[in-house]
Amino acid sequence: MRSKLLVFVSVLILASMVLSACQPAAATPETIVQTVVVEGEVREVVVTATPAAAQPEAKQPVLRVNLGSWPDIIDPQKSSFVNEIAHLKLIYEGLTKLDGQLNTVPGAAEKWEYNEDATELTFTLRKGLKYSDGTILNAKRFEYSILRNIDPATAGEYAAITDNIAGAVAWREADVANLSEEELQALKDGVEVKALDLNGNPCTDYEQEDCLILKVGLDGDPATPEREPAPFMHTVLSLWVTYPAKEELIAEGGDIWWTSSKYHIGNGPFIVKTLEPFVRGYFVPNPNYWAGVPTYDIEFSYITDSAVAFEAYKNNEFDIVPLVAEDLAVVQQDPVLSKEAQIYPGSCTFAFYMNQDKPPFDEKPVREAFAYGTNREAWVTDILQGLGSPTLTWIPKGFPGYDPNETRYGFDLEKAKEAIAKSSYGSFENLPPIKLTFSGTARNRTRFEWLAAQWSQNLGVKVELDPVEPTAYTALTKNRETLPQVFYLGWCADYPDPQNWLSVYWMSTSEFARRYGFANAEMDALMKKGDTTLDPQERLTYYDQAQKLLVDTAAVIFMVNNVNSYLVKPWVKGIVFTPQDAGWPGDVDPLSITIDTSMIP
Amino acid sequence: MPEILQVQGLETQFRTREGVIHAVNGVSFSLKEGETLGIVGESGCGKSVTVMSMLRLIPSPPGKVTAGKALFQGRDLLTMSDEEIRHIRGAQISMVFQDPMTSFNPVLTIGRQVSEPLEVHMGLNQKQAEDRVAEMLAKVGIPNPKDRLNNYPHQFSGGMRQRVMIAMALVCNPQILIADEPTTALDVTIQAQIVDLVKRLRDELGMAIIWITHDLGVIAGLADRMAVMYGGFIIETAPVRDLYGHPTHPYTIGLLGSLPRMDEAGSRRLVSIDGLPPVLLEKPTYCPFAPRCKYAVERCWHENPPLMQVSPDHYSACWVDTETGRERS
Amino acid sequence: MGKYLIRRLLWLIPVIIVVSGITFILMHSAPGGPWDRDTTARQVDQNTQRILNEYYGLDKPLWRQYVAYVIGDFNKQGKFVCGLVCGNLGPSYRMRGLTIQQILFMPPEGKNFLYSRFGYSMRLGVFALLFAVAIGIPAGVIAALKQNTIIDYVSLFIVTIGISVPNFVMALFLIILFASTLKWVNIVPRSWDEVSVWVLPTVILGFGTMARTARLMRGSMLEVMRMDYIRTARSKGLAERVVVLRHMIKNSLIPVVTILGPALAALVTGSFIIETMFGFPGMGRAYVTAIGQRDYSMIMGTTLIYAVLIALANLSVDIVYSFLDPRIRLD
Amino acid sequence: MTSTEVLLQVRDLVKHFPIMRGTLIQRQVGAVRAVDGVSFDVFHGETLGLVGESGCGKSTTGRAILQLYRPTSGSVIFEGVDLVGLKGEDLRKMRRRMQMIFQDPYASLNPRMTVGQIIGEPLIIHGIADRKEAQERAEELLRLVGLNPAYTNRYPHEFSGGQRQRVGVARALALQPAFIVCDEPISALDVSVQAQVVNLLEDLQAQMGLTYLFIAHDLSMVRHISNRIAVMYLGVVVELADRHELYNHPLHPYTQALLSAVPIPDPVIEARRQRIILKGDVPSPINPPSGCRFRTRCPLADTICAEQRPEFREVAPGHWVACHMV
Amino acid sequence: MATKPSVNPTPSQIADLTMMTVKPRSLWVDAWYRLIRNKAAVAGMIVIIFFLFVAIFANQLAPHNPLQTNAGKSFLPPAWMEVGPNGRPSDPAFFFGTDNLGRDVLSRTIYGARVSIVVGFLPTIVIVLVGSVVGLLAGYKGGQFDNILMRFTDVIYAFPDLLFFIIVMVTLRETFIGKLLNGLFLLFMALAIVNWVGFARVVRGQVLSLKEKEFIEAARCIGASDARIMFRHLLPNSLGPIIILSALTIPGMIITEAILGYLGLGLTPSTNPNDIFITSWGALMLDGQAAINAQPWLILPPAICVSLMVLAFTFLGDGLRDALDPRLQGTQ
């Protein structure tokens, strides 16, 4: 009896202690008494002020987004992560951009043209483009940005994305240490990116108003001496790597120029006001943006813990947060939250890779058997709580090149048994234990525990789980020597073109294919045809055939396409959702978004 | 001389896991102005507890004074308010403790600690208090007293610390000084210094002293009257010469006999008292010394002897007349 | 004292060398490197990797990298770039362009040092410590004074809970309770300038230390209460209040102070879980992230800063100790 | 009772405790000169008393003799063997011949061992007895020191201080030594119990012909039990003489002061006595005074005392003193 | 003196009589009686024994196979809730509800007890063994050995534990040690390596103070060897603090395992229901943390179990300290 009382009282005291400690929590307006001296007499003037944070630039509504994690770097030519790109997309704009249907549409360039064999691409910039500070933005700026991306001194992580520009590879891969200044300059000059004025003369400087033409020489396959067409390049150049950060500001700011809002003068819809690491990024509309001026400010926060972010969203502290699988059931159950959930396809495909260098996956029937024996639908419902869509092919739905007719290797235990019977093992029981290596994060653990249970229940194979620290996992999968037996990887589109899905990834000369030891000459030929064919429809047929071949090899078990899922407050209207959303929905067309302040409680 | 302190029937008990320990069992004595009373006994006989109980300094719990009175100038120390007794402690009755090492707060300066009673009882300001403390330190024989005010206890030697302790006790000119084994932890030469000092101060200041000790030697030259305690009782009390000259209680006799004497010519065998002092878990109904007593008779096991007069001013609690070996009537 | 300080500070040098050596070996023995990215991201291509490795000197043998980190090395232009000995903690591999000292100590534009990552962590640590001391010490004192009463038992029980419940569990529950359910505090700080947003992280981070402080204070008080000099103080007629305040507490504080220095270091360094949960811009989070990212200089830099912090905390304890306890002499 | 056969010869015994400083590399910055040149003989069957104030080095001397502290220099010749420098098995063998009784009956018995184990341990260590024999022998020894032999399975904390000290005596006797250093064996005991232990020690000496080095600060007790007495001050022996000689004719001013400070339990005598009260405290053994160690407190001190260390010389047969003024 | 003999016995007879009436009691027995009088410590012991029982008989106690996934039954609320916040009805078969794979939370929690018990004890044993021996040697032998230990602690204290754990787990994952006991063995070793120094320091301090005790001199005096002094005299007397410290080290290990589990380090998930170590409370909390909004019952059982277990050990440790530390005797 007494000990019960003890527990009760102690809980009470603990509670009251913490409560009293939390008392000053309410954000009340603070009263500041200023002492003002007026002509010799002292008066006290009472000034009521709201806390500093609550009084940002006037009455502009603010869109509050939890972006998850603070970017490592915000430099157009060095960034590579979605959260980094989300910042860049607000501040800058490229020559072209994507619209809600993933079509490439004009950005800073009002039009673009390929020459007849698609070895040269000419952009024409809009007239009168201005940076947010009112200075002129001309083609010379884009020339600088593209060259900066290729420059080996920049060593940007997406430098290789522009390899189809003629001369780019030679400069990018130059052996800097052993080349003279002159030789390097020659390599740089060999890159065919030229800003021209309307008369076709090379531009002289950044102030030149009629410098509106950008000519880009292309080479569909830099590995061969011939110039080949690259008809997808206008889409590639929509990427952030071409964003025209100002050369003089980069020079002035030095290595850390990107940490300061002072040097981030851009041509995008927003101007960055503050960048407070790990706390917030604050953006206000850019009055000089050619397409119009947004009617709201944006505030990015960086809460990594999804449970905390969800609580904050429910607390009306955020307008947009990512929705994770664990919270989905609650959201769906809640009459209000369920209406606020936005779930739509994403841009990634995930798959199990089977190491063809290691038994038993060196035998195709074994791979086939596992592909048959994996229940993708159950994976989606059980593991992802519905946040995903099962797939049997590589390019996801919504992207050019998607193959809606692919049905091979769907879940079928009978076929799995037939397949294994054809292998040298004869049955699943004879297989050696399968080691499933994965990145040992919280979510992955349960996922792979589930898969192991599935495989052992459905197929009767013994599965060993091998969680690896994430970076170590990456390192393992990057090297053919250390490549695990079975592992899980995905690919997300950089830009919506089948070339990015197939040639960049599965071409036997590509880095990815080399890592996994994947080489298929027939596929290589088809992909090359696709890359160099000018006619958009014809290209797609080659890629389609290549993709069918890929499925046929059963090199990987295609599992799911991700979905983007966010919670969006009802007063945020006009969001254009696309699979390519970077970090938050709406960055494709921020101008279409409005905030109905009357709805905000 | 009028009696300044009268203790009547004092009883103190301690609650322990093993049971209630009867530490003091009805102790009565009185102290005249300017008189020095020596209380002697082995460890655990209740001598310290008696004086601590009087000043209400025993930790409670586990200790508790269960009965008795301690009249100081006619007022009962045991029933007065906390506030009142605080005004008596340190001001009118002050104490000197056994271990000068642990009895000082190690993190406060000597000056601070010695001046504390002055601040509390005399309301002196810092300057006045400092002067008075320096004067007092000089009186107890601390060289350069002004400079040493800012020293910490550990910077003094044991003997010096005990001098400071005495200065602290006497700083408010108390009427009674209670010295609880003040020399036990000190070397012989230092002991002599301290006894000497107290003697001098007593003659100078005229306070009454209760000196608690287990060493019959130390007290012989100092005390006017003696009380011997055993098992929480006073078992013999007499003027000092009477007690040493004619001890009547077997325990007192044993104690004196177990001490070797420097001035003895030959080498006699020491008298030893067999057995151990008792731990009293209940109030004894028999003589607590009986189990160790050579003289014990049947009656000793049934009845606890009260203090009985054996000669004028000499009282003893024993059923046996140790001179004749016969039972007293 | 001066000599002692110098000697103790000099002793830091071998500690730093050994700690940096071990850290260096450990982090380089972990598979993967700074260019290995999240598996969903496009991986840095081999050529870029090569260029980056060359640029940062990661292509050199390990011992040279270590020497370059500690002492320095000549860069491409033949200029000597000084290493750790000049206080240079190296370049970040993930936040390219930034040096570690910039990441940790450089405040955002227009703010002062307190807004740097180190400044944030330090503030949180100091607040947590203040909370721990402000609650823990009085609680310990009261529990000791009321020993074996209901107050004592209750505070002991709370204290034991504080020691027992892992702080991330407590953090989650407190967030749900105070932020989500009671809505007393915001979960997401609009700004770390508001007092209210510091409350939860401070309380959660400081709770364990508070509990330990209270426990130690109680034990220490109980010990001091039995000391002879307390009896002496009472015998002088001092009021109970004075006995407690002047004689008991100062002495009882001595052992408590010895844990507070290391506790501060632990609070500043050990807050990564709390930092992650509250989206707190401190360095604990940066440290854990850096380990995951193999941002070698960042790992080294933070480790060494922690090592120095801990050593300084221990040193300051010794110094404070010598002030509190006149018996202690530093030499 | 006393023979003139020398059992133990201590010559110029020095024990300095180094004071070390340093964080990583420790170096010696000074030394506590606990024992600084002590010489005396102990005869067969006698009790030599060693007195002095605390910190004078008397316990250190006792321990240095038994090689519990390895002496810094000097020699300790016991039964013809110099113990200084003796190591390993040789030293172990000598340990059987000489034992020690400690001051604190609470700290000197391992609280986790039974009394039987404590007393039997020396026998087992020296391979004299097996477990069972050791047990039997422990019972005998308990009986010898006046305790109930049934107590062998009891633990030290179950005994009173006096009983524990008896156990300590029994342990010392287990190896049947010739020589026992008694390091203040009674100062932690109650007065009534002190006599019990002293009587026991005397009885055992008579019974077994033991030789004692009896260390104490209580001069009256030392005088009671010893045949000869050595007085130590700050690491050196200042006077050594027969006990009657020492009491009746103390030569060294320190001895005189010490004698006069010892209280006598008789108010009549006490009232008459004139004390020599020494000024101040014992100086630090880290930095002892030059010349005569006692000069800073000595009523007779002269210039020579600061300059020269007084020789320890025999001024009368068997009466040694170290003083310039004698 | 409870009895009053009518005849006059000799004093020593009385002493004997009183002594013989009580049984001999070693300090350990005394401490044990003190311990079992301490209610909190007894409660702690009961909880520990309960979990020990649960851990040993997990196979028999768990109502379900902890690895059994139940399609369509994921995130079921616990039995006492009719409908969870996610709208799913509870199933009486799953008392604590189910996790995201439809696995029984109760069964998993029961199995989790194993890891916590083992992770509490085994590293502690290693720490105690190594720490005691080193502390004993450093304290007794002193000198350079001691000096090195003390300097080493400076380095260890300044050293980042977490980095060490992560790197050890990552680098040794593929080795034999890394695979032993589903990776737990490696965790033990890592925990032990980081923690033994503090332990050694405490033992050293204890030995330093014991060394000054006279019974150690007495042992030297009777010719005991260094080894005998260390292991027969110093060790048994340092055992009290060692036991107390061990009891207080155990909860630290359990919390560390939980935190490491929470960071995704430590136990490798098992796929074989016959494995001894299938999951740990730390791993369960990690699972539950992400879903704390919707399914708080996922994190509750492991969190409460960890807290209870740690609480139990803390109470027991406190009780042991009160029972074994003689300085505190009488203050209770």
TrEMBL record, chain A:
<comment type="similarity">
    <text>Belongs to the bacterial solute-binding protein 5 family.</text>
</comment>
<dbReference type="InterPro" id="IPR030678">
    <property type="entry name" value="Peptide/Ni-bd"/>
</dbReference>
<dbReference type="InterPro" id="IPR000914">
    <property type="entry name" value="SBP_5_dom"/>
</dbReference>
<keyword id="KW-0813">Transport</keyword>
<dbReference type="GO" id="GO:0042597">
    <property type="term" value="C:periplasmic space"/>
</dbReference>
<dbReference type="GO" id="GO:1904680">
    <property type="term" value="F:peptide transmembrane transporter activity"/>
</dbReference>
<dbReference type="GO" id="GO:0030313">
    <property type="term" value="C:cell envelope"/>
</dbReference>
<dbReference type="Pfam" id="PF00496">
    <property type="entry name" value="SBP_bac_5"/>
</dbReference>
<protein>
    <recommendedName>
        <fullName>Solute-binding protein family 5 domain-containing protein</fullName>
    </recommendedName>
</protein>
<feature type="signal peptide">
    <location>
        <begin position="1"/>
        <end position="21"/>
    </location>
</feature>
<dbReference type="InterPro" id="IPR039424">
    <property type="entry name" value="SBP_5"/>
</dbReference>
<keyword id="KW-0732">Signal</keyword>
Automatic annotation (TrEMBL), chain B:
<dbReference type="GO" id="GO:0005524">
    <property type="term" value="F:ATP binding"/>
</dbReference>
<dbReference type="GO" id="GO:0015833">
    <property type="term" value="P:peptide transport"/>
</dbReference>
<dbReference type="InterPro" id="IPR013563">
    <property type="entry name" value="Oligopep_ABC_C"/>
</dbReference>
<keyword id="KW-0547">Nucleotide-binding</keyword>
<dbReference type="GO" id="GO:0016887">
    <property type="term" value="F:ATP hydrolysis activity"/>
</dbReference>
<dbReference type="InterPro" id="IPR003593">
    <property type="entry name" value="AAA+_ATPase"/>
</dbReference>
<comment type="similarity">
    <text>Belongs to the ABC transporter superfamily.</text>
</comment>
<dbReference type="InterPro" id="IPR027417">
    <property type="entry name" value="P-loop_NTPase"/>
</dbReference>
<keyword id="KW-0813">Transport</keyword>
<dbReference type="InterPro" id="IPR003439">
    <property type="entry name" value="ABC_transporter-like_ATP-bd"/>
</dbReference>
<dbReference type="InterPro" id="IPR017871">
    <property type="entry name" value="ABC_transporter-like_CS"/>
</dbReference>
<dbReference type="InterPro" id="IPR050388">
    <property type="entry name" value="ABC_Ni/Peptide_Import"/>
</dbReference>
From TrEMBL, chain C:
<dbReference type="GO" id="GO:0055085">
    <property type="term" value="P:transmembrane transport"/>
</dbReference>
<feature type="transmembrane region" description="Helical">
    <location>
        <begin position="304"/>
        <end position="324"/>
    </location>
</feature>
<dbReference type="InterPro" id="IPR045621">
    <property type="entry name" value="BPD_transp_1_N"/>
</dbReference>
<keyword id="KW-1133">Transmembrane helix</keyword>
<comment type="similarity">
    <text>Belongs to the binding-protein-dependent transport system permease family.</text>
</comment>
<keyword id="KW-1003">Cell membrane</keyword>
<keyword id="KW-0813">Transport</keyword>
<dbReference type="GO" id="GO:0005886">
    <property type="term" value="C:plasma membrane"/>
</dbReference>
<keyword id="KW-0812">Transmembrane</keyword>
<dbReference type="Pfam" id="PF00528">
    <property type="entry name" value="BPD_transp_1"/>
</dbReference>
<feature type="domain" description="ABC transmembrane type-1">
    <location>
        <begin position="118"/>
        <end position="321"/>
    </location>
</feature>
<keyword id="KW-0472">Membrane</keyword>
Automatic annotation (TrEMBL), chain D:
<keyword id="KW-0067">ATP-binding</keyword>
<dbReference type="InterPro" id="IPR013563">
    <property type="entry name" value="Oligopep_ABC_C"/>
</dbReference>
<dbReference type="InterPro" id="IPR003439">
    <property type="entry name" value="ABC_transporter-like_ATP-bd"/>
</dbReference>
<protein>
    <submittedName>
        <fullName>Peptide ABC transporter substrate-binding protein</fullName>
    </submittedName>
</protein>
<dbReference type="GO" id="GO:0016887">
    <property type="term" value="F:ATP hydrolysis activity"/>
</dbReference>
<comment type="similarity">
    <text>Belongs to the ABC transporter superfamily.</text>
</comment>
<dbReference type="InterPro" id="IPR017871">
    <property type="entry name" value="ABC_transporter-like_CS"/>
</dbReference>
<dbReference type="InterPro" id="IPR050319">
    <property type="entry name" value="ABC_transp_ATP-bind"/>
</dbReference>
<dbReference type="GO" id="GO:0015833">
    <property type="term" value="P:peptide transport"/>
</dbReference>
<dbReference type="Pfam" id="PF08352">
    <property type="entry name" value="oligo_HPY"/>
</dbReference>
<dbReference type="InterPro" id="IPR003593">
    <property type="entry name" value="AAA+_ATPase"/>
</dbReference>
<dbReference type="Pfam" id="PF00005">
    <property type="entry name" value="ABC_tran"/>
</dbReference>
